[in-house]
Fold these 3 entries.
Entry 1:
Amino acid sequence: MGLLSLLRKLKSSNSKDLKILFLGLDNAGKTTILKTLASEDVQHITPTQGFNIKTVQSEGFKLTVWDIGGQRAIRPYWKNYFEQVECLVYVIDSADRKRIEETGLELEELLEEEKLCGVPVLVFANKQDLLGAQQASEDIRGIGPYTKLEGQELANSSLFSKNRRGYKGRYGMGSEECFKEMITVLLSPKLVLSIIHLTMHDHLACKLDSSHKSAVGKC
Amino acid sequence: MRLKKFLLRYYPPGVILEYEQSGTMKSKSIDLLDLKPTTDVDMLLDDIVAKEPLITPSKMEQVRKLILRLQEKQAESVDHHFYLFKVLRAHILPLTNVAFNKSGTSFVTGSYDRTCKVWDTASGEELHVLEGHKNVVYAVAFNNPYGDKIATGSFDKTCKLWSAESGKCYHTYRGHTAEIVCLAFNPQSTVVATGSMDTTAKLWDVQKGAEISTLSGHSAEIISCSFNTTGDLLLTGSFDHTVSVWDTTTGRRVHTLIGHRGEISNAQFNFDSSFIVTGSMDKTCKMWDSRTGQCIGTLRGHDDEVLDVSFDFTGQYIATASADGTGRVYNALTHHCVSKLEGHEGEISKVTFSPQGTRCLTASSDKTARLWDPFSGKCIQVLEGHTDEIFSCAFNYEGNIIITGSKDNTCRLWR
């Protein structure tokens, strides 16, 4: 990639080249989703110390996805990446019940960022298949209090009406669908917050043999 | 005119004469760019005496000693084998650029974590953390040869000038309206030039901390800027496919180098400022006559974008780095390809010559930096150990220490 290509990704050249930001706590699965989108191997992913950038092309659209590490120490640096963001994707580990409050608080802070004002937000409720994962509705309830969002009601709340209009939930989508959903969100002026529920199998189905699948199921 | 003192310049080889003329001290240099360890010293001396009135027959012995010393210097350290000296867990986010001071006793690293750090080369200790930028510190530079100041350019749109000794911030230069991505001190260390994604370059006064001029004319982001050896001209390379040559005293554009069909990746003067080399995403490099601004040659051969280009210290050779994973070395006069640097398993984003010109150093996305013999194209050494791609690399002035900065948040010292 090199520093020069970082600069090229920094500038917004044409309208079909869109910058997407992936944020969320550590271990939420941001890099896995990114790599799946780019059809890359997801078996050996380590905590992201800085960031990963991938450009994914489909249907005439070029999405430049910035995946930023989620560890506590580097969260203060998320704001370095807010310039010219077309869509924020917030990834939640639905099985990590202990940190649902923490993830909600982080999302709340993001929604109040001036530079992200009006930027559509897509919440990926990841790891739906793991034991102990929150149900779709619980996810919303879990993070709702911290984001002042709760289902359809949220659509009319003050924070929401100011810069985000609309809400939508969706279940069990594969990476293809995720991509399409991002495009939909980007193109639709009305739909500005969307929640998608993902399972590990969505990412891994195409990549893993059955033995690995069961290993994933155990964790 | 009375000759007062000789000064020796190793890279590129030369002898500086300090002399008195009607009461004031002046200096001029005898550039010995063609000097080789095998050069016949007597013939060279005759040549110098014939051309330079300050070198009278009585001074010849002194000059002979100086030339012999330069030749000795050229012959040494050719076979230097580098080993990993230190791994510095420098930053909590990826590094951007790195730079040595002239003596190589300290160096600076810039990072995505918004800081810049000054390091002691010998011990690997952190000397200063330069804090204050509100976003990525992308460009860093020492005011060589003095080395008492550091300039940093940031995505927060400002440039800061720091004391290298105390780490104190002297000035914050405000005025750019987008990220600063390149900067350079003039050789006199009186001016800092910055290039920005806002399509302009600016010149700033080092002493006063004020803007001197804005160089506008490019229609897209400026991503490289560099002064010539005397500091009266500045080159800016842009994503608008052109390179501009600016007169730094007037702030006027002297030439626009038009011809590339892709974004510019880098542009440099050779040592005597007669030629300019430019690298581009159009897979070629071009050579330009800096007096006329005319293109005098196109260096072809790469199968993908040229990501970096560099003259050696004497200006006789050019090294290129490409996204095709190879480097090339060209003769600057004949424009012939001298060698291909093949072996990296990913794109090469940086290339530089050792000050002696006997080695090329490349940094790649394959997580290695490599040393090459520029004439045979043979890979001499693979510097392995980084766990992510290498963004930047540099030699010290002696050519016996290398720093590499990586996306893995570390900086490695090799000696």
Entry 2:
Amino acid sequence: MNAIAPLLQVNDLKKHFPIHGGFFGGTTGYVYAVDGVSFEIMRGETLSLVGESGCGKSTVGKALLRLFSITGGQVILGGTRIDDMPSGTLRPLRRRMQVVFQDPFSSLNPRLRVRDILAEPIRNFGLAKDAADLEARVAGLMDKVRLPRDAVNRWPHEFSGGQRQRIGIARALAAEPDLIICDEAVSALDVSVKAQIVNLLQDLQKELGLAMLFISHDLAIVEHMTHRVAVMYLGKIVEVAPKRSLFAAPKHPYTEALLSAVPVPEPGAARERIILKGDVPSPINPPKGCRFHTRCPYAFDRCRTEEPALRPVADAMGEGHIAACHLHDRPAAENPLAGSKGASLLAVG
Amino acid sequence: MALPGPQDGQPLLSVENLQTHFRTPDGVNRAVDGVSFHVNAGETLAIVGESGCGKSVTAMSILRLIPEPPGKIAGAIRLNGKNLLECSDREMRQIRGNDISMIFQEPMTSLNPVLTVGRQIGETLRLHQGMSAKQAEDRAVEMLNLVGIPEAKRRVREYPHQLSGGMRQRVMIAIALACNPKLLIADEPTTALDVTIQAQILELMRDLKHRVGAAIVLITHDLGVVAEVAERVVVMYAGKKVEEAAIGPLFRSPRHPYTQGLLGSMPKLGSSLTGHETRLAEIPGLVPSLKAKIPGCVFASRCPHATDLCRAVAPALEEKAPGHVAACHYAPREGAMAA
């Protein structure tokens, strides 16, 4: 079908964290943090993973980076299966996947100057020919993230949050990766600084042809940054679609509720409101059937017993829209998600 | 209570030339530097700005929660005409939680983990309204019902760790509203919450405002939240008020370049549908240090329109249109605005 193989392919990824308890500290249960997640990212593409806290989006990012071993599934990077590689052979893999973390205050070593922070990955992966090349690469990285070159002699604490995030991005770029995982990379920043970093990430992606997994809870930023969006709820992906399709015609009740819940800076905007009741259930004991049925405004009997599978849904906007919801088995007249409701949810005319 | 009743034509709260400075080893930090605003009874006023602009310090100053020293509060804060800065500690304790109450950002850390939520709601009632333990518990159940916590009778005996983040914030709101305060200060009440839970809490605040009738001062950095709940907005930057207007005019025709920059740097949800996918506007540079005295306009170092005048002379707050003030030499007056 598709002649171009994806850069990253994830098949049925699972990560269950054991819960220890009881008198002998045995395993008393599992947190089903990620419970069967599949997606792929093409070269130069941004896929966003959105969802609320505890939905497992960060766990997916960490599992891809092999920061812990996974419970099940496959991760394939550039045609090579990487989830079962022995840890001794991970170094070339680490060069190809880099990460930018949320908190720019705790993710930089306070005892290293900026030069050493940026030089470390270059040395580690043997990318520089000699000392002069190393120096030139560090200077080039500073240019890329638009920091002054002479700042390489300073310490992390001398920089503001936005500047530190630039250093974090430069460090990720130092290894010349194919894929960057941004785990809430702009969430901790102030509005005006956030815009600077968002623009920088977009420019770098275009310039370097990077693939990006953008993990975020901020839908407005996601819409601005991404090519495709995957929505997660309680350890599962409930909907994947190209950006315009997802925002124009959400095909899962949870996506719809998420979109309608984001406050828009437009006083008196007439929008359709869906206020979800209750809280996200515990991932230790997820609901039977569809995991969203406890909060879903449209839930019916089948949702409580049978788990819906992710499958293609009809969308006037185009191809590649998949969602996990039983409503799509009903005739269009009885399916509240059949039309394109995005515009009324977001109050755009 | 010790407070006089509301007088005709007088705002509920008026803050006049508030200056909250902190003495630090390397100079005086002018966290809030000459801020004035008022809140009418039953009104929702939002104070917006980025981290370090002094919005939370303003809120803490109103309740006199700033430790003195190193802090120092000057100016006047009048609640129904009575200057809170002249009150004794004893009088302040009567006012806090009774006439003015506060909701904090962190529902995880602002509740006492070793007391049941019923005890914590009842505490203010027993202290301020002299209720018995039994009366206080009954009222606590009532309050939990009011803020939409199911099974209030059972929940009232539970501890904070047994509640989710959204529920804890509801408990915080119940505590704050227990004594029917005239003024509620909400400092980033939904920032720590997920977006679907945030929508629930904002809905609750809107609903309670109609039912309880308290005035609200909402402190936030999120202009989306402002547009949803506030009636009037004060924009702060580097310890100063730079603009104030009703929400309609503020979002439609912001006068101060900082407000314009803030609105421009926010990605608009739905941009992919309208085809307005433009590059985000950046505000270049950083917030200036509050320890150095800034001679001209506080925003001059980042402002795209700044001139020598801006760098030398601080602009005064001027009424640019009825009820719309901005501190900018070049902000257009009404009529001069190009459509």
Entry 3:
Amino acid sequence: MVKKSRVVDLEFNPFDLLSEEILFDILDYLDHNPFDKKSFSLVCKDFHTVESRHRRVLKPLRSELLIRAIDRYPSVERLDLSSCPRITDDSLAAISNAYKFCLRSIDLSRSRFFSNAGVSNLVLNCKFLVEIDLSNATELTDSGAVAISKASNLEKLWLARCKLITDIGIARIGIGCRKLKLINLTWCLGVGDLGVDFVAVKCKEIRSFDLSYTTITNKCLPSIMKLQYLEELTLVGCLGIGDEGLATLEKGRTSLKTLNLTNCDNMTPWGLPYLTSRVTCLSHLNLTNGSVVTEAIANSLQNLPKLQSIKLDGCHVTCSGLEAIGNCCILLRELSLSKCSGVTDEGLYFLVKKQKELRKLDITCCRKITQISVDNVTKSCTSLTSLKMESCYLISKEAFTLIGERCHHLEDIDLTDTEVDDAGLMSISRCTKLSSLRLGICYNLTDNSLIQVGKICRELVELDLYRSMGITDLSIAAIASGCPRLEMITLAYCKDITDTSLVSLSKCSRLSVVEIRGCSSISSAGISTIALGCKQLTVLDVKKCHNVDDAGLLPLANFSRSLRQINLSYCSITDVGLLALANIACLQSMTVLHLKGLSADGLVSALLACSGLRKVKLHACFKSLFPQAFLEHMESRGCVFQWRDKPVQDGVDPWVWRHTARMNANVMYLLDEV
Amino acid sequence: MDFNALQRELKMDFKVKLYSESWNDSSLGNDKSKSSITNICSQKPQLKWDDSSSPDCDMRIDSPFPKFNEQSESLSPRSYDHNNQIKIHDQIASQARGMLFDVAKHKDWDPQSMLSNLSFLEQKIHQLKDLVSFIVDQGSLVAGQQDELVAQQQQLVSADLTSIIVQLISTAGSLLPFVKSPLPTPSPLSGQLGGTSSVERSPNVGMSKASLHNNDGSKGLCNSDQNKHMIDCVSDHNCTGKTNHSHSMSSFDDHESKDEDDVGEGDHLPPGSYEVLQLEKEEILAPHTHFCLICGKGFKRDANLRMHMRGHGDEYKTPAALAKPNKDSSSEHMLMKRYSCPFVGCKRNKEHKKFQPLKTILCVKNHYKRTHCDKSYTCRRCHSKKFSVIADLKTHEKHCGRDKWLCSCGTTFSRKDKLFGHVALFQGHSPALPFDETKGTAVSAGGETAETSNRIGSIELNVGSNSSEGNNIQNVVDVKGGADDPACYFSPLNLDTCNFGGFHEFPRPPFDIPEGSLSFFLSGSCDYNQNNGSAPSSDAFS
């Protein structure tokens, strides 16, 4: 960008030589950073026009600017309105008039205030719509569904939580949209067997069918299973689906690859053999919160030769069951046993013994396993890329070195609430591809190992150091300098972190999520450096940073134009600082609890000024202080208030905190087992 | 034959009067007029409902008759030269047939005796033919006679006829040697000339009684009735089997009851057959019909009254006092009561020239409320259908809104899965939205059908009463019933339901019904010929 702007100064404009096609090609490469295109369009009028005509994807951040954005970008194919809470029928009319022929995809999942008429208008005008996301359109009724059914080219349709749509509406969609490949009916409580059955009969092209939390029963399963191209079926929380339905399924060749039976409480273990004998092409099976997994059940998995991924989260597994899984599923790439009771060192040994190809293993909250398991896992599954072992606190410190020694391909590791120490982390830091590192509540860690991580793991994108008290500014400096790709960092309750860390972090230009909750040493100065350095900052949590005041917010308001979400609870903010935040056009969520310097009037003016707000968390005492008209106005803008009435919390001793946390978790764990 | 001659005169008078009243000029009973009526009817078949009995019956006179002749070969062809002859012939045969059940079932079939019996019948028929033809010839002279005289004549004629019939029946019994009557053995005809009481006991004989009445009241009814008997005889004779026979019998009762409902005006009937009562409007609309003679308390049912009466003393507690009055042996000999609607101009009013009485008080109440009262009960679901009888409302409300599932083609379904099955089956159909406004229409449409089906019952009641000048409402109801009911009487496919169209209207044996209604609309229909196996139906129209 810089080079180009220099060239502009010359009398002869060499840009004239650049044809539109070339500029388009250039623009094609400017995808990663949203600011690049902005800069490009600011070069000259031509570039501005070219950029406007080149843009295919539009994600407006403010509802009220939508009309102007539409004017500027004439050839948008994909319109993502998820940041515009207020989309009225008029907006939809404008959209449909402007993008009659080019619009292919529209996302209205987070928008409200439009009616059936608006949808109808949109669908009738934009004849080439292929994707519509109407999730959360809780007001949408069957007549809206009738409107959708006019979109004959529709291939993907999301109707999650459209609770007013009934079988009639779905049937109309089934009749109208014959090309549907994906349909999501999550939480469509008005839709039952008849509607689903009908859609399955009419829309033969369906690849992906999401029926989570609907009231469907076994009756519609046969027709779903007859869908020739069905690859993905999601039945989360379908209590009407039971073993009998699976038992009556015809033995046939189905193309089903992914099946999600999470929370299907009426599926007993005995249904699984029926299932596995019918859907033999299955590669991904999700049985989260299912039943007991015993040897007999696990043995039925051998009917699924292509099975690559099993999720058994929350199930009770037996040792023999794990062994059977290990023996039956040879090609397993992904295994999730998170929160499974009954996972022991022995079971895990039998499971992973033959799984040389395992890529992802999740043993979160398998609290019984020890270093033996780590030894076994690392010995057999050397290709692991993801290892999640949060809260496995019986694993001794020494075991973690084995991970680094044996699994060099790790990209994602979660060691939250484990006993990992410097030696272990230094060993893990050998995994140069590491992108996500979660080290929350690891009290044994110090700067030494993190500096090592900062030196080696240059690909790091996410770093979680929640309550890792041994960490100081030195680690952060090393990380900030060594990991330029860092996007997310959590330093919550790291008491020793000061503004210096923020200064060093401000070099990470991609940083978008910064959580420095409870770092009392951090002041407004640090915040302002972050604001200046990290232009892409979208989430900032400075809760309980008592030293942060208005001085920190003013630069934030000026420079962090991408900020979406901010938590300012317990800070020393006044009305002035809050009002300044109104400058951030796309600020959507704000949590302002226990701010002593705030007055009701100041809050009202600030909230009125922040026109993009969608969610505000406030103390309940303000509810009575706000005028009713104001609340109604905010609501009509699409803003939701969440009233909290928590007392002011003081800091607790970290050891006591961890102890109580583990105790609580154990109680839950024991309750689960009972 | 002096007595007979007098009777003839009297009957003639009566007959003429009747014709002039109900048939205007057209139906003096000759073939020409008959065929003209038949033509009219075949052109406008919906008249079948409105015009009640006349055309259909007329046609029927001809059709089964030659068939009978063929069976009874010895009959002289002259006997059906004239319509009146035919009629009488018919009549006699039917009376005779009524008796067959008594006599013939003990005998074996003997062609010789049968032949002689037939000849005897022929003789008798000739006598009757002379009698009636005389009446017809002399008809115009006595047209102006007063009603009392007419009644007298009527009485005489019926007495005469009954005596002939008794003779005929006793002989005709041998015609059907192996009749196995499924009915309880009818009591033998009493010696009374009126014959009413005995007539009432057995459906068969009751039928003959009805035909007698009809003969007096309406030519058409009479003929159709007799034809029915004829065909019954024939079919029995042809060994059509017990099944058919029992079928005919089982529907016989039904027939008869409708018969009685539809018989002609009481004035022209022999005294003692039934009496016409007319309740006042206030009585009809009163909540109670049965009143305690002691305390004056009113009841809707007489059973309740009887229960109530027990409180007034022990004498009301005897089984006799508590028994249903109709079951009394004495009541069997009592006059049948028929009711007239107090609304002048209504067909159910006794002043109407095609008066058709109502059978019970309940019928009167429902008829009066439905036809002459405001419809004050509105359906609470659809808020569009109104009823004057609360039972109708309740029936409607049971079904109202049931057919809420509507297809884009306009078909409604009471069940959603049926709608989806329908939509899945037919390309281009789609389930319609239950919008509030569409819901309203859908509901009212459903309600309409519900109501129509409701009214089928009332149609049965009203069928005979829908005269050509019947009020519009009734016509509309009938049309609806016809449209909704698969009993579309134009379609030969729906013979059974067709029957029902005429079933209640015309006293006619069940055998005859399919052929009759079919031949009525499709002349020369093979069905008719097959069943009769003899005369082509074209004869019927010749």
